[in-house]
Amino acid sequence: MLSKNIAFDKSDPFSIVSVEKGQWQITLHLKSSQKKSRCPLCRTYSRSIHSHYHRTIKDLPAFCNQIQLHLGVRRFYCHNKKCKRWVFTERFKVHFTPYGRVSKRLEETLLKLTLLLGGNPGEKLCQTLNITRSSSSLIRLVHRQKLPSRGEVVYVGIDDWAQKKRLSYGSCIVDMERHKLVELLRDREAATVEKWLKKHPEVRVVSRDRFLHYRKGIGEGAPQAQQVGDRWHLLKNLGDALQKLLERNRQYLKYSLPQKKRLPALPVPKSASANSIHRRWQLEQIRRLHQEGLGLKAIAGKLQMARVTVRKYLTLSEPPLRGGGRLQVNIALFERYVRDRIREEPHVQLLQLFKEIKALGYNGGRSVAYNHLHALVDGRLYPLQNNGSYLDFLPSRVRMLLVKKTADLSGREQKIVTRLSLQCPQIGLAYTMAIQFREMMAAKQAMNLKNWIHRVLKSEIPELISFAKGILNDFEATKNALTLPWSNGQVEGQINKLKTIKRQMYGRASFELLRKRLLLDTS
User: Fold this and answer.
1) How far, in Å, CA of 174 to CA of 298, rounded?
2) With respect to CATH, is domain 155-230+487-519 assigned 3.40.1410.10?
3) What pTM did the predictor assign?
4) Residue extents of the structural domains in the chain
5) 3-state class of 344 per DSSP?
6) Least confident range of 6-20, 152-166, 279-293
């Protein structure tokens, strides 16, 4: 009786006859205590016993031992003459399923374990927990599950995810009210989105990015729904437009180095690299072929370049910059200061000199600094390339400053923006327009959107004009983004979860397995 109270509830329709303890295994002999059973076909009760047999069922492990159940089961006669089945086996409402070789609670545990970890990691954890299960068995368990019904979905978010980056993409649909993934689509075509939405006429709001196929599919499949443009993607598209503007005017990205103390630079000329010469040759070839009347596709094929790159080069007066995102300050700028310090204190330590030039603005590596300081201390001239007293700011870095509020800019960043605005009126005007758009978005002032677009169209800045025309083509969705509280943030979170599970399976899982792992609730 005590063993039954530990393993099962008092209301369970069977009793434990005996318990056997083996090496790493405990066997429980169970006997059914049901007085009658119902036929699974006609649902008629019967008390007439036909025969007995035993089932061997695995259960959850306990005390570092595998648990095996020997369940004595009876067969009953069905007295319903109209029923096709004469003899049937008794059923149990809890713990055991017909034809099952494992208990329900073990199966539920294995299912959750597989949904969280996958096949191979799940198999290794099963070995740790003293459960005998292969990865294939765990995956088959997931495939056997039926997907749950989500009910009605009113507020929906949609975005794409990469099955194979740059080759094939699918769509992820999320219930933004319940924060649950409701469907995973094989592609991101307008017809596929339209077909799914027609099955859900209750949808009232759809949040999305500015992808044309989604706009078309939602318009055809759910004309009653409000489309909401994602605010993050709007800001990103604005940043892309600003980056193109900076690339077109990259000569203004050079400015004098702000320092606490003016330090002269070594007059060493900067030599052109092989890559910069090749990029300049590419720019000349693209211009020549474009003047001859060739299209973007033909030029890209002839020069073995991407069409996007060809289109970008046609808007530039100089080849684009190459380099890392961090702004390097040349060590040679501090040479005069270091020489003066050595004359004042001949036995000064290199660590002290390194700390002092760091305080003056040096942000390079320790090894380069020590090599140069060693040469100065020993009286040798250390040959170094010098970039002059100007820094080349990458457009991808400066674009982030042009969408920041003035109060959020540091002193150094404020100097950069102020200098750019004074040197290039177009950049200054674009900065003002970008701040106005961001403030309008933060304050949810949708009524000012049309006035902002008209001012941009008169600004003669082609990059911002292109951005404004894109908003006009999708005006209602952008207006809803400035009035409604919905955005694609929850969808992006679900896609991050999808990417984690996809990489956990090493990219070898089928679409159906990935879909089931995401749609089955593990909470």
Assistant:
1) 41
2) no
3) 0.69
4) 2-101, 107-144, 155-230+487-519, 232-242+394-481, 255-392
5) helix
6) 6-20
